Amino acid sequence: MTRIVPPIRLGVNVDHVATIRNARGGDLPDPVRAAELACAAGADGITAHLREDRRHIRDSDMRRLRDRLSVPLNFEMAATDEMVAIALEYRPHATCLVPERREERTTEGGLDVIGGGVDLAHKVEKLAHAGIRVSLFVAPDEDQIARAADIGAAVIELHTGAWCEFLAAGETGSAEAELARLLEAAAHGSALGLEIHAGHGLDFATAEIIAAVEPVRELNIGHFLIGEAIFVGLEGAIRQMRTGMARGRARLGAPQAA
């Protein structure tokens, strides 16, 4: 008998469309147009990271994404008073709290939920009280995940970057160990009642593998899809990603939604 496993969603991050725009100035290419094209191609949601230094996404982009999207908007943000205030103003479907340093090129690790203490717990509570679904971007560490559940997060997004980097470097043993950590973390978080997402560094091959991890309900992918769109178009890149994710999910015996 075929097991019924929940389908897996694809969230598309449009930050790096804005990166290209900002490299030259002006308004093109427009990340909001990219978001709309991504949705037409099969994205289940859109993610955008409004950084403290506004290096890619701008405040005006967040407003337009909120106003024009018909799918959930995931506001990726640092756990700061400024960003909490903006989230409370815009009221996206979800926020994903991430660590942020000005000198980093991209998010380099998971949020220190334990070190965030009472202040982080208050921020999560404030966002959740406003009806915003709160996700915490974390490393596959059981103590951090347990703390995420304790402070009321609805979701954790597991940081897959280290695993992807080990694979790219040909470090097979380290990659296998990191994948085992991700599998254990997904099971642990799910047992605590958290919804499990995953993202960072994923490509067609790695997304297919993670899609076969039963507790994972959503993958959030940006840089790779925007880069691949240069060669095959955004629609082609997203459709290929969806095909690979469906193939991975099918290993669990799950029928995929159209």
What features would you highlight for this structure?
eight-stranded parallel beta barrel; cytoplasm; alpha/beta; disordered C terminus; 258 residues; transferase; EC 2.6.99.2; TIM Barrel; 51% helix; 8 strands; Pyridoxine-5'_phos_synth; 17% strand; 10 helices
Sheet-strand content, in percent, reads 15-25%
User: What is the CATH third-level topology name?
Assistant: TIM Barrel
Biggest sheet architecture: 8 strands, parallel, barrel
Shape type? globular
CATH level-1 class = Alpha Beta
CATH superfamily: Aldolase class I
Gyration radius, to the nearest Å?
Answer: 17 Å
Based on secondary structure, the structural category is alpha/beta
CATH architecture: Alpha-Beta Barrel
Helix content: 40-55%
Tally of separate domains: 1
The number of helical elements comes to: 10
User: Helices and strands, in N-to-C order?
Assistant: EHHEHEHEHEHEHHEHEH
Q: Low-confidence runs (pLDDT<50, min 5 residues)?
A: 254-258
Quick rundown:
The chain has 258 residues and is an alpha/beta fold. The chain has 10 helices and 8 strands.
